[in-house]
Amino acid sequence: MRNRNVRVSGDSILNSLLASPMARVGWLRPPTGFIKMNRDASFVDKTISGGGVVFKDPSGELKGFFFTRFKNVNTKAEAELEALSFGLFLALRLDFLNIVAEVDSLEVVQALTSREVQCLYNL
């Protein structure tokens, strides 16, 4: 099996998943003038969920981060959206107006890019 370098971001996540059963993925720099927001969430059950966000500039310098537990989250998709929502809120508070946000949840990407939007979460 050949390894391929695959860029994983919101719009290309489905293509990258289909590209190869084994993909090596690494951090990709945002364009000049942008901040990259990498975020992730964890969900075990309604009482155990949380997430975090890391902000880096094009040189890879850490510009900010957060991690927290979430309350009243019912699904993994809701936890992913909570991390994305709070990350975008924090980016605005930190005056990061040009953001590249990575989303690794296919369900969330499909929900956010679908023409038939199904509400998974009340933003």
Strand order of the largest sheet: 5-4-3-6
Q: Which word captures the global form?
A: globular
Q: Can you summarize the main beta sheet?
A: 4 strands, mixed
Low-confidence stretches: 1-11
Helical residue percent band: 25-40%
Measured distance between first and last alpha carbons: 42 Å
Using only C-alpha atoms, the radius of gyration works out to: 15 Å
User: What is the SS-derived class?
Assistant: alpha/beta
Examine the coordinates and then state which fold CATH places here, giving the name of the CATH topology of the domain at 32-113.
Nucleotidyltransferase, domain 5
By CATH, the superfamily of the domain at 32-113 comes out as Ribonuclease H-like superfamily/Ribonuclease H
- Structure summary, number of beta strands: 6
CATH architecture of the domain at 32-113: 2-Layer Sandwich
Q: Which series of helices and strands comes N to C?
A: EHEEEEHEH
| The level-1 CATH class of the domain at 32-113 | Alpha Beta
Query: How much of the residues is beta strand, in percent?
Result: 25-35%
Arithmetic mean pLDDT: 78
Tally of helical runs: 3
